[in-house]
Amino acid sequence: MATAEKQVMIVAVDESEHSTYALEWTLDHFFVPLGDSCLFKLVIVHAKPSCTSSVGLAGPGAAEILPMVESDLKRIATRVLEKAKELCLSKSVSDVTLEVHEGDARNVLCEAVEKHHASILVVGNHGYGAIKRAVLGSVSDYCAHHAHCTVMIVKRPKTKH
């Protein structure tokens, strides 16, 4: 009897505590308790900003700056994926695919959903207020409206002071 192929769950990660929390929450609720009988194949995706989007229109000195910025962005992407991999391994989740794609996170995540035919996309929530969300744009909001799969937004519980 052939075994059915697992559905794909994509978890978006960046350098924020919010995405780390979302990954940890997802591992604890969907992967660790089920072990090998988990229903999902895990794909972790990091959207690396393009060099020019990070610098903007830098003007005459851009040629010297861009290689340094690109190097920093690559270093950040490597660090983000290493942290995600370590978290997975610490929870005994070893069957994971790690990917970095350059571009705006909103587009990168929706494209990853299409590429992998994902059933679920998991994103963290930065907890921005309405004004910051309007100015910066919310990746989770965009994905909830545009991704062709279920989108789960994992919010960190508020800490009481």
UniProtKB/TrEMBL annotation:
Q: Matching CDD domains, A to Z? A: USP_At3g01520-like
Q: Which residues form a coiled coil?
A: none
**Any Pfam family hit:** Usp
UspA domain spans which residues? 9-155
Q: What is this protein called?
A: UspA domain-containing protein
Q: Which InterPro entries match?
A: Rossmann-like_a/b/a_fold (IPR014729), Universal_stress_UspA (IPR006015), UspA (IPR006016)
Spans through the membrane: none
User: What Gene3D superfamilies has UniProt attached to this entry?
Assistant: HUPs
Protein species of origin: Rubroshorea leprosula
Highest taxon of the lineage: Eukaryota
